[in-house]
Structures are given as structure tokens and as C-alpha cells.
Amino acid sequence: MGQAALVDNDAPVVRVQALVKRYRKQMAVDGASFSIGRGEIYGLIGPDGAGKSSLMKAIAGVLSFEGGMLHVLGEKIDSEAAAERVKGRLGFMPQGLGLNLYPELSVEENVDFFAQLRDVPPEELARRKHKLLAMTRLGNFRDRPMKHLSGGMKQKLGLVCTLIHEPELIILDEPTTGVDPVSRRDFWMILTQLLRERDVTALVSTAYMDEAARFHRLSLMFDGRVLIEGEPDVILREVPGTLVELVAESQVEALLRLETRFPQAEAVGPKLRVFVPGAVPQVARAQVEAQLEGLMVNEMQAVAPELEDAFIALLQRRQPAGQDDAQKSRLWLDGDPPKGDGDAIAARELSRDFDHFRAVDRVSFEVRQGEIFGLLGANGAGKTTAIKMLTGILPPTGGAGTVAGADMRHASQAIKERIGYVSQAFSLYQDMTVTENLRLFARIYGVPNSRLAERIGRVVALAGLSGVTTQLVSKLPMGIRQRLALAGALVHGPRVLFLDEPTSGVDPIGRRRFWEILVHLARVEQVAILITTHYMNEAEHCDHLALMHAGRVIADDTPAALKAALQQEAGQVLDIAAEPVLPALEALEQAGFADAAMFGKRIHLLARDITAAEARIRTLFAERGIQLLDIALRTPTLEDVFVYRILQQEQQEASA
Amino acid sequence: MIVRRIVALAYKEWREILRDRLFFTLAFVVPAALMLVFGYGLTLDVERIPFAVVDQDKSAMSRDYLHRYIDSRYFDYKGDVASEREIEPLLADSRIRLAIVIPPRFQESLMSGRAVAVQTLIDGTFPFRTASSKGYVVAINAAFNSELLGSYISRRLGVSEETAQAMAQPVGVQLRYLYNQEVKSVWSIAAVLMMFVLMITPPFLTALGVVREKENGSIYNIYASTVTRGEFLIGKLTPYAAISVINFLVLWLMATQLFGAPFKGDPLFFFLASVIYVTCTTGIGLLVSLFVRTQVAAMMLTVIVTIVPSVLYSGLLVPIASMAPGAKFEAHLFPAMYYTDIVLGSFLKGVGLEQLWGKVLALLIYAVVLWTASFLMFHKRPKS
Lengths: 656, 384
Hints:
The structure holds 2 protein chains of 2 kinds.
Chain A: H1 2-6, E1 14-23, E2 26-36, E3 41-45, H2 52-60, E4 67-72, E5 75-76, H3 80-87, E6 90-93, H4 107-117, H5 122-135, H6 151-163, E7 169-172, H7 181-197, E8 201-206, E9 217-222, E10 225-230, H8 232-238, E11 241-249, H9 251-261, E12 265-268, E13 271-277, H10 281-291, E14 296-303, H11 307-318, E15 343-354, E16 357-368, E17 372-376, H12 383-390, E18 398-403, E19 406-407, H13 412-418, E20 419-422, H14 434-444, H15 449-462, H16 478-490, E21 496-500, H17 508-523, E22 528-533, H18 536-539, E23 544-549, E24 552-557, H19 559-570, E25 572-579, H20 581-590, E26 597-599, E27 602-607, H21 610-624, E28 627-634, H22 638-655
Parallel strand pairs in A: 3-8, 3-9, 6-7, 7-8, 17-22, 17-23, 20-21, 21-22
Antiparallel strand pairs in A: 1-2, 1-4, 4-5, 9-10, 11-13, 11-14, 12-13, 15-16, 15-18, 18-19, 23-24, 25-27, 25-28, 26-27
Chain B: H1 3-19, H2 21-41, E1 49-55, H3 60-70, E2 75-80, H4 87-92, E3 98-102, H5 106-111, E4 119-122, H6 127-157, H7 161-168, H8 185-216, H9 219-223, H10 229-258, H11 267-291, H12 295-312, H13 325-333, H14 335-349, H15 353-377
Parallel strand pairs in B: 1-2, 1-3
Antiparallel strand pairs in B: 3-4
Helix pairs in contact in B: 1-2, 1-10, 2-8, 2-10, 6-7, 8-10, 8-11, 8-12, 8-14, 10-11, 11-12, 11-14, 11-15, 14-15
């Protein structure tokens, strides 16, 4: 890094000032400003269409922009020639899992090609390749064509290819979208390790709010603008408030009452979550209690809000009362909500092979009426294939199943009439209005003409679409389209609903609105819902979860039970803050805490005997002159559960 | 310009083309297949026209007249029918394309010096074939007439048949077909098809190859690296040009060996001119790829900008000289026309650089313009 020495180390690596990017008339980035310091992992967080990709491409010098100023690595980027001057010192990985790699080339050929493109000398290449492939555990797959890698491996190969020329600045556009939690954790480890070894600065975008803790600093982006910028803790301080979690009886009634006073109230599985803005914990508790007077309230807890709560609060500050009344319309007129009895969906030993590849491997589970059942897994884990079999689209290779009382092997037509299905890419007709789409779906599902208007009216009210019925679908934002897709799937009054990654790319407010409707459907209407997602925090909404990995269900229980089982088997999650943090992590790894991992500036590890572990850590840090700032117990997240289960599975397979 | 980077780019591209089934087919199977299909399918010779006759005279002369058709290689005799009414369904079914009706008292009338009309029905659905058929009919009829006249003169003047013939037809036509002595259309077509195939397949392959990278985002590897525009274009396109040269050689072999077209020109000159031509057509694909984002759009645009000029404005179907002034002007705008002249000149006329330098120069200018335009339009920091 000869040039690096010439640059003032305190000067920002990237400085963005009021940057504007337009595509014809469409505004993509609307005056974004921030700067990134040397050695930072800087995050851009926001939903699809927030302008993250455009901003990153502009910084990488692969997209021109219309307004504002941009400095990268000390160079003012105002022309193609200026951009060329810094390209040798930066690495850019575009969005899309491994899409920028060459599918026909092997792992090694891909790496070699990137190295040659970047003028890496052969001896250097051999050394770096060996190290990076070992670090990403791709060493055994050197000769495998890239197209035959799993999603997580593709992502890691992409990272290796981006790093092969040892850039000072790496720009990674949504590197973790659609990747399983283990690969995600691996990915962050590699990034942290690089940071530790060399002075690499990273700009990383993500659609997952829960990854915010991984960044030193971040920008929350929405609609082309930076809503707020800074360290995660600072952002949380900017949006003061308290999160109150509780369990109430009845949940439906409690939620209705809370919503009248607090815009950010939601049901998450058995719990209710309320964000009380601007209130300290005691005040917040009192306010919530007052609102719920007369109801049975248990397990009330006041905790620190998460970044997503802050994000939503910020968005609502910008566009107040953007809510079109979430009406609690009923799905059925006849007053016969089906009784919450029996299994709505039952899968028994379902398998599906594609050529020599087993996409789904003896999967079994049950979903009862009124239950929200989550199928979790990375891209390629077999979720979509499982759903396609249960909805009668794809015949199974083996096993059996019943859906809404019909046998999936023989009565696929009956199944299609009794269920609603929202696919990954919502199958809406872009050039038709909302009402026209709904009318079409209703007719396809055989709703009689006499009931058409009434049915459509119901789902429009239910999905909160009353303001947009005459608009063309192509003009609607993502979140509303998604609700329209849901309305279309409900128009014939199904009792079982299948949702395949319905919330991918939707902003947090849109996601929350969507979940409100789902919770209503399940709790009030007793609809059975099977949903797949790769957002771990969404999984908390589910009553029951099945974790899928490589075609199999590796864990199947309620979220609480899954976490409890983890604590019993592997111990508690310890959350450690130390100074300096990187040597601390190194010390912990050397001392045998194999699963110690960085979460932003903090370190997490699993420990069975907490007091013993704490004592060991204290002595260890004291020996090394590391200051222990804080050590605390944390409830494990579902991601912790998922990672643990996958690793356990892989170990079993390795030993078998 | 760093050669190592160009080689890396070209080698990467080459391996991708060889390993991707679709690209491999497009690169190495489609050109030869096109040549085969069109070579056998596009023969423009009109021969063996199926026909039937209604002979209402059944005399020696009527039989003589009809035998001139029956014995001709241009006609395929399908039989006699009894009446005109039976002809109609045969024509309608396309079982015959032509029918000849000899009227009653054909011989008697001719002998007594009265003119006779032989009704000839020709299927007019394919104008080109109809015109050829009519030409054959008129020629056969004229020959019969002049023989009749000759024998009449010979009888009246008591001279020999030959003298009488010479008197009846003082001016004869002596035809010598040049360049394609047997007037076999496949000779010309096989040669011109080389132009056609090399006009269509290289742009297709090139446009798809470049747009594929845009579509899946791997173009950002290039944008974000220090590879220069020139290095990228050369590295990326060399394999496509090389494949086109290989195809050129394959097509050349097919034209001469499979279709039996004679090659009379200078092979080296033809080879070099063809290399310029494929550089040119590869450049068309490159230019197309800069205007579109998706592979579907690339395919559609390529079809429009390559098939239309190569079919209509190249001399493949209609000679440039017989085009309307507007069309003639348009023909001069496309490279296909120049290469058609080079191909025909090399194959059939045996001419070389002295006669064809103008056409080669036109192609060269074309190639330079296309590549320069592409180079100037290609940006590593685009607007969108």
C-alpha cells in the first residue's frame, strides 16, 4: 500500500456530499451525504429502491451521477478518468448472489481471472488464493464449476474474487441477501478478520435491519435519502423511547387498544411489542398499563428498542399518518369462520428429486387452523419446492400430504380451490388496475358473479387497498403490490394460505403492515398460514417454526422452545464489550471460545457455565491488558438457533 | 494496453463459449446448419414442373408438339386427362403446375395454314416460378413454330431443311454462359450464403455475449477494474472474431466440397477479405450490444439489423443493379453487398484485389467505423 502512506490517515476514505443520481426523471439518490473513515465497516441499510445500489455504484466509479460531490481515496470523482485513477485500489461486488461470477468457470478459474484482470503477480496470487480459499473453506472445491456451488459458497467466492487484489476499500452490495445464517456469520467473520489484518475499509449494504449491529457506523436510507447517519447506538439515542413487550389476554383486544394510542404496536407470536416514543422505561410501562386496564397482562418487560423500531419511528416522522385505516374487515360474510380444529396442512415424509439432486428430503410437519407456521431456510434449502408440492403444483417423488382436507397426490385441483397462494414474484398483471386484478383472480377461482362485488370489497378493506382501487399495478409501490397479491389470494375465501417469501425487498413499515394483516387473519379468522422467509426477525412472528437446511427440516418447534433448547444444549449467549476489541476477539479464540464472533463492536459467544466463563474471560483479559467494559447475558436470537443447528447438522454429516 | 489482461479476458470468454451449451451451439453448430438448410432449400432453379395434357386431336403433330414438353428436363409429365374439366382439380391440388390443352383439329388446321391457339394454364401462385414456366413454354412453342416454318419453306422452295431453317431464322442467338457455365444456381447460392451466414451468426453471438454480462452484472467486474475500454473490447471480442473465422473456413469447405461450387480466385485474398468482413459483422454485434440491456432485446435488434440487409440488400435474391434507385442506395449502406461481390468474384469470376479493392476498402472503412463508434460509446462509468 505505497499510496496509502501518502494519504493522511485521518482523512475519510469516502466522502459523499449531497449526491444526486437520477435515471431520466426518476430520482434514485436525493442528496445523500456521509463519510467513511479508514478501517471502518460502514453500512447502508434500507429497503429495495432506497437508492443503496445507485449510491454504491457511484462510489465504485461505475455509475455517473448528476449532482453533489464525491471523494474516494483522496480523489475527487467527477469524470470517468478520475474514477479510473482509484479503481486499482478498490473492489466492488455488485448485488445478486454470485451473479457477477462466471458460472461455467471453476472456483479457481474465477479467482485467477479476477487476479489477472487486476494484475496480481502469479506468486502473489498463489499465496493470496491459498489463504483466502482456506479462510472461506472453499479450498476443497477449487475445481468445481461455480454454477454448482451453494448460495453461501457463491457469496464467499464473490468475496474472494473481490479481495484478490487486496483493495483498500471494498464495496459490497447486499452480500448477505438470501444467504443462510451460517454463511452470513462466516461472511462477517472474514470481513472482521481482514479488518484486523490490514487497513481495509468496507462499505456494505443490507436489507436486514438485524445486521446493523455489525457496522461501526451506518446510514439508514429510504426513498433516495439518508434518514439518519452515525453509530448504531447514536442513532438509537436520536430516537428516544422504550420498547414494552408483554403477553395479554386476549391478544386481539389488547392489540386493538394499544394501536389507538401507539402507532408502533404489533403482535409478535404470543407477545405484543409496543414502541413508546420519548418515554423512559417506567413511564412507558405506566402508559401501556393504563391503556390495557382491565385485561390480563403478563410478562411485561421494558427493553431498549431495536434499530428497526427507530427506523419506523423516523419514517413515520417524515410521513405522518400515512396509514390508510387498517380496517378489521371480516373475510367471511356468512359468519362461519372455520373452527380452529385439526390440521390444515400435514406433510408426511415429503421428498422431491430433480435429476440426481434431492431438493426436499423426507420433510414432515403439521399446521393447524389459526396457526402461523414459518418455514425458514436459505435460498436453495428447499422451501419453495416444499410449498409447490403442498399446493399441488409439483408432484412429490415420495411421501404424502393433506392440505385443507384434500390429499395432495390425488386432489390437486381441490387443493387449488381451497387455498390461497402468494408466490415469490407476485403474479399480478401490471397493466391492470387493482380492482381488475382482483376481479380476474375472483373469476379464476370461480367466485359467482352475484358475490363478486362483496368479496372484492371485503379483501380490499382487509388489505387496506381502498385508496388505490382504480390505480394501475405498475404505478404502485412494492409494499402495496404485496398487499394486493395477498388480497388476490384471499378473494375466494380460502382457509389455508401459502406465502412464499412475500416480504423480500419490502420496507420495514410495509413489512409490519403486512404482518398485521397476517396476524389478524390467523387470530381472528382462524386461517392457517404457511410462510417462508429468510428474515430471522420475521420468524419471531410465527407460532411454530421449521428450520430447513439442504432439503431437510433440522429443527421444528415454537420460537421460544427452540431458544430454550439452544440454551439447554449449548449454553447462554454472552455479550462482551472490550477495548481494544480485535485483540480481545483473538484472545478469546485462542483461549478456546471457538464460536466467539464479532457483532459490530461487541463480541458474542456461547457458554454453558456462565460464572466460570466470565471468570476465565476476566483473567484472560487482565493477562493481556485488555479492558473489559461490559459483560452481559443476552437471550439468543433465532439466528443463533439456526446457526447452531446447521453447524450441528454439518458436524453430524461430517462424522457419519 | 496490457497484453496479459487482454489474454485473460479472451481466454475467459473462450472457455465460457466452449462450456456453455447454448453458446457452443450458436458458435459452431448453427452456422453450418444454416448453410445446409439454405443451401438445399434456396435453390432457385425451376425444373421438373409437373404438368398434364388434354390432347383433343390425338394426331401425329399434336403428339410431336407435346413430346417437346414431355422430353424436356424442365417439365415433369404427369399424364393425359380426358377433358379440360379434369384439369381444374389437379391444379387446385397443386398436383400439377401447368396444363396444355391441344384443341381438336390441331393438325388439320396447321396443314391448311390456319393459326391454332394452344391453351396453356399456369399456376400463378409463385410469380417467380410462373415467369420461368411461361418462358419455357414460349421457347418450346417458338421452336415448334420455326420448325413448322422451316419445313414449309423447304417443301415450297425445294431446298434442304437446314437452308430453310436458316432462311426462316436469319439471326440466331449463340449463348455462352460465363462464370457459371452450367447456370447452376447452387453454385452462386452456396457462395452468397457464406455472406448470409457470416452476416447473421457473428453479430448474434457477440451481442449475446456482451449483453449477458450486462444482464447478470458481471460487466461490473470490468467497470470496477483498471482494465481499459480498449483492452476489454479487444479481449472480449477476439474469441468471437476467431470463431467467425473458423466458421468462415468451414463454410468455404462446405461451399466447395459439399455444394460443388468452383473456387477460381486467390485463396489468400479471399481469406483476408473475409477476415475483414467478419471483423465488420462482429462489430455490428458489439454496437447492438451497447444499445440494449437484455439478451431478448439484443436478439431482436440483431435480427432486424442483420437479416434485412443480408436478405434484401445484398444481392442474395435480387441483383443490386436491378433495384430501384432508393433500394440501390440503401444496399450501398450495408456491408453485405460488398462482400457478396467479393464472394462471387472470388468463387466464380476468379478476380482478385485489382478488381475488388474498392469493395475491400468499403468493408475496411465499415469495420473501422463500427469499432470506433463502439469504443467511443462504451463507458466504464455509464449513466444507468
